[in-house]
Amino acid sequence: MTVSTDDTDGLARSADRRRLHEEIDASAGARGAVYALAARTFDQLDAELYEALDDGRVAAEFDTLVDRSGLAVEPPELTVEDEKDILSARYNDLFVIGFTEVVDKTDGTVDNQGPPVSLYESDYRSEVSWNDVNLDLARAYEHFGCQVDQDDRRNHDHFRLQLEFMGYLCRREAAVDETLAQARLDFHDRHLRVVTSGIADALESEPGTGIYGELADFLDRFSEADVDDLDERIHGEGAR
């Protein structure tokens, strides 16, 4: 069989596209795994998670995935020196347990505050109502066929849910769905970058944050680099 010059050029272009798709598959898939692993790590400790942190498996997995992500970002240093109970207490002190103070003993008036660092986006969006933030997220999740597990009793704007959703979008992009790059960029701009940078800033002002401060700082850097890469891919260099 003979192949014409035009056919040869077409085959070369097809080969180039296949190579490009393979690169996109690898990087998008790795980024999705980074977001999913971060969502798992940014959770209350169970025995399985603590063991994986303590023996270095989580840190090693982050190293591998970040290297495959195509982003020039240093992975987090997740060295664990605390016992499980101490690390669990640190998580609760930062993200779960609020603060109550009696401000007037004569009438019993108390000042109730949430935990030092909120894991909910709406707490970092004073210009937007709680309802608007969560409604927009609910629509985004539903559009891509995702639902929030009602057993977890988390609002749609919870940090871990957003990380899981971004991981899902990355995995769909890894299947060479060309529309997902723009969808990921939009979700970053509208939601994930807001809560990620908010949590990183809040943890920076707290003492003794341990691996959670390190992980939040990494996610801030990683998601920012992801946004820059997506923007350059979609709009061209120097678009922002």
Shape: globular
List the secondary-structure elements in sequence, H or E: HHHHEEHHHH
The unreliable regions are 1-17, 100-105, 108-112
Derived from helix and strand composition plus strand pairing, the structural class reads: mainly alpha
Radius of gyration from the CA trace? Answer: 21 Å
Quaternary organisation of the protein chains: single chain
Into which percent range does the helicity of residues fall?
Answer: 55-70%
Q: Numbering strands along the chain, what is their spatial order in the largest sheet?
A: 1-2
* Beta-strand percentage range: under 5%
**Major sheet size, sense and barrel closure:** 2 strands, antiparallel
Average pLDDT over all residues? 85
Query: What's the number of helices?
Result: 8
Report how far apart the termini are. 50 Å
How many strands in all? 2
Q: Gist?
A:
The protein is mainly α and about 240 residues long. It is built from 8 helices and 2 strands, in the order H-H-H-H-E-E-H-H-H-H.
Topology summary:
Elements lengths: L4 H37 L5 H8 L2 H12 L15 H12 L3 E6 L4 E5 L16 H14 L15 H16 L5 H25 L5 H26 L5
Antiparallel strand pairs: 1-2
Task: Explain the overall architecture.
The structure is a single chain. This protein is mainly α and 240 residues long. It has 8 helices and 2 strands, in the order H-H-H-H-E-E-H-H-H-H. A two-stranded antiparallel ribbon has the order 1-2. Helix 7 runs antiparallel to helix 8. The termini are far apart.
